[in-house]
Every structure is written in C-alpha cells, then in structure tokens.
Amino acid sequence: MLGTRELEINLGPQHPSTHGVLRVKLKLDGETIVESDPVIGYLHRGCEKLGENRNYIQTEVYTDRMDYIAAINENLVYIEAVERLLGVEAPPRAQYMRVILAEFQRIASHLVWLATHALDIGAMSVFLYCFREREEILDLIEGYCGARLTTNAVRTGGMRLDFPEGWLGSAKAFCDEFPVRLKEYDTLLKTNRIWMGRTKDIGVITGERALAYGLTGPCLRASGVNYDVRKAMPYEVYSEIEFDVPLGSVGDTYDRYLVRLEEMRQSRLIILQAMEKMPQGPVMNKVPKRIKPPAGEVYVVNEGPRGELGVYLVSDGTDTAARCRFKSPCFVNLQALPELAKGHMVADIVALIGTLDIVLGCIDR
Amino acid sequence: MATTEPPEENGSVEQAPTSAALDRLLATMPDAVEHSEFQRGAPIVRIAPARLLEAMTFLRDDPACRFDLLSSLCGMDLSLTRTDGPRFDVVYHLYSVEHRHVLTVKIAVAEEQEAPSVTGIWVTANWHEREAYDMFGIGFAGHPDLRRILMPDGFDAFPLRKDFPLEGREKDHGCWRRPEDDDRYTYVAQAPEK
C-alpha cells in the first residue's frame, strides 16, 4: 500500500513568474494546493521611515521607487496628500496634465501586466507586442520628464513644466493607433484555447469576499463591486471627464483580464478628452520654497492601476512628516492569494500571482 | 467626552463639514467615543479601546454607515509628542462603497498593552495588523497569526518607532547587541540611550 503525504515546496523568491522577489510556501497534496503562504519583505527599504525623516520634497523621489511600474500614479497621490495638508491646489492646466500622464501610466502598467501574465501562462507573442506599445508610452513619458521609470513628474502646487512642443501630437498619434493594437491582443488571446482554459473559472472570488479582503482596483471590480476612486471620490479633473467603469460578473481570472483590457480603452478615451478640454494657462501655483504644512493629518486615496493607493500624512508643523504611511494595493491584494489558490493545481498559482498584478516594490515599500 | 460641533476650522475647507456616519455613531454609542473632530473636511473619531470591536461591528453593519472596506490600518508612535499618555495610536481608515463616505477611527494603545484585533470584522486587517506589529511592536489581542511580515523573523527591534537609530550597521549597534552575540541578525529590543 502506498502512503500519501503532503509536500511542502517553495516557489521563489528567485523565480521569474513571481514578478520580483516573492516567496510562496506551498503545501501540496499531489498537484493540488492545500495551503499557500506568501512570504514578503525581501524588497523592504523602509520608505515610511524615510518619509518621516526627510522633508516633503525629498520624500517624493522615494514614491516612484515603490510601484516602479506605475511611478506617476504614486507621485500623484503623495503630492496630492502634501497639497491637501498645505491647502494649495494645482492650476487647471496642470490638473489636466496630471490626468493625461496618470492615464498613460495606467495603460503602460496594464500592458506590462498583460505581457507578463500572458508569458506566465504560455503566450509568448503577446509579451513582445505589449512591450512594443509600452515602449512608445515610456518614450512619451521620457519626452515629458526625462526619465522612463523613476519619473518624479509631479510637483507640489502643479507641474514643473508644460508639455514640450510636439508632445501632444505624438500622444494623439499613439491614441489613434492604440485601439487596433488592443484588438490584436484580444484576438490573439481569446482564440487561444490554452489561455481560455487557464483563466476561466480560475481563482473565483465573490464581491462580498473581495471587499472583506480589502481588494481594490480591477481585482475588486472583476467581482462586480463598483468602486473606482476616480468616480467615487473624484480628484484632479476626473469629475469633468466622461468614462465608464467596467465591471465583471464571475470574479475569475478571465474577468480580471476583461476588466483591465476595457480599462485601457477607457484610459485612452480619458486622455483624448483631457487633451481636448485642457485650457491654456500657468502650470505652477505659488508654493513656499520650504514646505511646512500646518499641523494636522490627511488620508488621500487615488485610483492606481493596481487599486486604491493611499497616503496618510500627519504633519506636526515642521518640514518633515510625523507619520508617513503608504497604503499599497498590492500588499492588500496579495493577501487574498491563499484563498484564491486553495484547491487549484500547482500550475495555477502562476496564473493567480499574475492576475493579482503585484509589484513587489509596492508591496514591501 | 463626546463633541459633535462645532467642527474645527482647518485647512482650506469653506463649509462646515458634516458626516452622517459620525452623527449616527455619536447618537448610538456616545459613551464609546472619546473625541471627534473634522480635519480638512474628513471626520476623525477616537474610540475607547475597550469598546473598539463593538463600535467597529456597528460601523460595518449599520445601514446608515456600512463601512465595508477597511482601506488602511496603521500604527503610529507618539512618544515624542504625547509624553503623558499611551505611546501608540492605531489608526483605521474606513470606506463605504454604498454611501461613498469615509471615517477615520483611532484608538490609543500603551506600550505594554494590546489592541483588540479587528480581523474578525474585516479579514484584510490580518496583514495590516501584522505590519503594525512588525513596525511598532503593537500587540493585537485575538489575531490568528501575529508574526513579522516585512522584517526577518529573527529581527528583534521595531523600525518605525521614533527611537530606532537611523545610522550605523546593525552589527555594530551596541545597544542592540548582546555582548556574547556575534550574529549580526540578532538584536535585543532595548531603546538606545540618548
């Protein structure tokens, strides 16, 4: 008679499909996952401690090192928190610029997600196509702020500079081309039986459970809960822009794919509207050289590509925050992995890590 | 002591801010609320630690509040500013998908005390509380699995406390090094001498 026993194995931390340095302790019964325990912290740099020991201007450069795939969104939420503390606002043109850049960054981030997710599951060509498009967006971002990843693009009180000459033209050209490309990926994947088989009904989570787990962003909306910070608590000029929030119905990996794909289309529409509505004018308001907000606290949330990005700042009246807390959506979303993975095959853990769209820099801070 | 109004003028808020959820909480359990205020338009309420679970359950389940999303939970070290009271605060940021409103809840926790765990109310609190324990050493009574999350398991100090030194290698830090110990990853949790 053969004995059976559970097998414990490590996935990561040095494994390409874990998207960084994530380690998952898996307990397997044959090929079925019984338990999984994500182990994080390999990339912990103490961004919160830094934020409490450097002044507000110095801390901004750390924000784009957190979620390095979507740096502008991280910059934006931190700067918004500082602005709220300080009681200043960006001029209208700067607000539109922020929306345009943030949405471009969202598309770029979703493209990286789609590329790596497809690669993990076994669709190599999508990976190459997506990175071609992302390259164009990174060129645009580089054309504005000179950096591709560590952007540091937003300033307290507005933007440092206006868009350079010809930038809006290139942005428009990209938006015109983009839907065709997106259709291409969709066709590539939807006609791929392996893709459909490996995403449909994998990692189902109900809306109620997703909320209890604190999931936000596309992971929550794929389960049918309508919560998008851009609609619920509009910041910048999102209230003046028309767009739809795609919702899923089943809450599986395939729904999360559909939601993110539609979000890219919506982001493109937002960019086009914002470019049309953008008024002329200054891009920077008067802000004191040394930022010393009055004592008090503020918690600001933004819709990042991965979910609700939060910054909790407590000022004690000096130029350094008394408490600087970064709420990371990836950190919260990853927590649901054991529940999603339970009962699935060991090969699905790769698809599930991909579908949560984690960035370890954002998780560990 | 419960205070409903007037809300404090703070920041660039023009109208006096209101919060239906805060009013509801004050009306239902006024004795649990130690203090309430508005800061830059956002309602903040301080609750007696002993009544936290009761108040949080109410905030999640009451139809007028319905805070179904625990957006963030974090610790805070107030040893530099609040010298006469408990050392830590635990701050909860709540959001309601249905009503689209927010509430910040705070409790005070002394160094040797434990805060009640809200994992039974929101599952998401699990990792947040582990992080608060990891960074500040705040204990959470009733937490199912309270261990370090970001720092290595053998780490014996709490990095986000205000007295955590900013310079020097861990190995050379006399105050955290047992004399007989040569392992750079072993620490003794002791506040450094100023």
Topology:
The complex is a heterodimer of chains A (365) and B (194).
Chain A: E1 7-11, E2 23-29, E3 32-39, H1 47-53, H2 56-63, H3 71-86, H4 92-121, H5 124-145, E4 154-155, E5 158-159, H6 167-190, H7 193-199, H8 207-212, H9 218-221, H10 229-232, H11 253-277, E6 296-304, E7 307-315, E8 321-327, H12 329-334, H13 337-341, H14 348-356, H15 360-364
Helix pairs in contact in A: 2-3, 3-4, 4-5, 4-11, 4-14, 5-6, 6-11
Chain B: H1 20-28, E1 33-39, E2 42-47, H2 52-61, E3 69-77, E4 88-95, E5 102-109, E6 114-116, H3 125-136, E7 139-141
Parallel strand pairs in B: 2-5, 6-7
Antiparallel strand pairs in B: 1-2, 3-4, 4-5
Keywords for this entry:
heterodimer, A: 365 residues, alpha+beta, three-stranded antiparallel beta sheet, 15 helices, 49% helix, 13% strand, B: 194 residues, alpha/beta, Beta Polymerase, domain 2, two-stranded parallel ribbon, 3 helices, 7 strands, 23% strand, globular, disordered N terminus
CATH superfamily of the largest domain in chain B: NADH:ubiquinone oxidoreductase Nqo5 subunit
Number of helices of chain A: 15
Number of E-type strands of chain A: 8
Q: If you compute it from the alpha carbons, what radius of gyration of chain A comes out, rounded to the nearest whole angstrom?
A: 21 Å
